[in-house]
Automatic annotation (TrEMBL):
InterPro entries the record matches: GrpE, GrpE_CC, GrpE_head
Entry keywords, A to Z: Chaperone, Coiled coil, Cytoplasm, Stress response
Organism listed in the record: Floridaenema fluviatile BLCC-F154
Protein name per its UniProtKB record: Protein GrpE
Annotated segments matching region Disordered: 1-40
Function: Participates actively in the response to hyperosmotic and heat shock by preventing the aggregation of stress-denatured proteins, in association with DnaK and GrpE. It is the nucleotide exchange factor for DnaK and may function as a thermosensor. Unfolded proteins bind initially to DnaJ; upon interaction with the DnaJ-bound protein, DnaK hydrolyzes its bound ATP, resulting in the formation of a stable complex. GrpE releases ADP from DnaK; ATP binding to DnaK triggers the release of the substrate protein, thus completing the reaction cycle.
Main location: cytoplasm
Similarity comment text for this entry: Belongs to the GrpE family.
Compartments (UniProt record): Cytoplasm
Length: 240
């Protein structure tokens, strides 16, 4: 009996050890099963935190870019406004300069024309004297004719020179009197011309281009004497 009990003890010990090992494995497996969900939750939490941190970083970066874009747009608008103001100033200056140039050119032309008129106007009496001499002097001898030809050639040269400078005679005879062109010295009653017509030119008038160089001194027609009609000449009959 004693031997049987001795043989049974090792078997029981082996079984006990096996049970202990199995329990230990079960405990480890349970621990692993518990740790797996915990690790997943931690990983998910960490991923969410990382995503939120990345989103916050992207938002901050986007806001910074929008601020830079807004600053650039504001700077561009300021530059555009300055460009428009400078362009407007340039246009005003250019217009003022163009007006000044035109005004200066016009004043210069008027001054040149005035000097030209004064100079040529001073020569016109010389032309008048040549024309009076031509009308009054009647050369008789050969010597007188030669002298006449000499000063007439000078007269022709002067007239040619004046014509080349733009001087032209008015020749107002037969035209209607115009106070802007003519100066009336005499009014002569006549039935030959209509009233207000230039009958004769006493002192020649001249143009310089389209400008009056000298007014023509003229004789103007006035109303003539009307003949008394036969009806006007008959005496009135006495009242009956």
């Amino acid at each position: 009996m004693i031997e049987e009990s001795k043989q049974t003890e090792p078997t029981e010990n082996i079984n006990a050890n096996a049970n202990v090992a199995e329990e230990s494995n079960n405990t480890a497996q349970m621990s692993d099963n518990l740790e797996t969900p915990l690790n997943s939750e931690v990983a998910a939490t960490e991923a969410t935190a990382a995503q939120e941190s990345s989103s916050a970083a992207n938002t901050a970066e986007w806001e910074e870019m929008e601020a830079e874009i807004a600053a650039l747009e504001q700077q561009a608008n300021q530059l555009k406004a300055q460009l428009e103001e400078r362009t407007s100033q340039y246009m005003r200056i250019a217009a003022d300069f163009d007006n000044f140039r035109k005004r200066s050119q016009k004043e210069k032309e008027e001054l040149d024309q005035q000097v030209k008129c004064n100079t040529l106007g001073a020569l016109l009496p010389v032309v008048d004297n040549f024309e009076r001499a031509q009308a009054q002097i009647k050369p008789q001898t050969e010597a007188e004719k030669n002298i006449h030809k000499s000063y007439q050639s000078i007269y022709k040269q002067m007239v040619t020179a004046l014509k080349g400078l733009g001087v032209s005679p008015m020749r107002p005879k037969g035209q209607e009197f115009n106070p802007n062109l003519h100066e009336a010295a005499i009014q002569e009653p006549t039935n030959e011309y209509p009233e207000g017509t230039v009958i004769d030119e006493l002192i020649p008038g001249y143009f310089l281009g389209e400008r009056v160089l000298r007014h023509a001194v003229v004789k103007v027609a006035a109303p003539g004497e009307h003949e008394i009609s036969s009806e006007e000449s008959q005496p009135e009959s006495p009242e009956s």
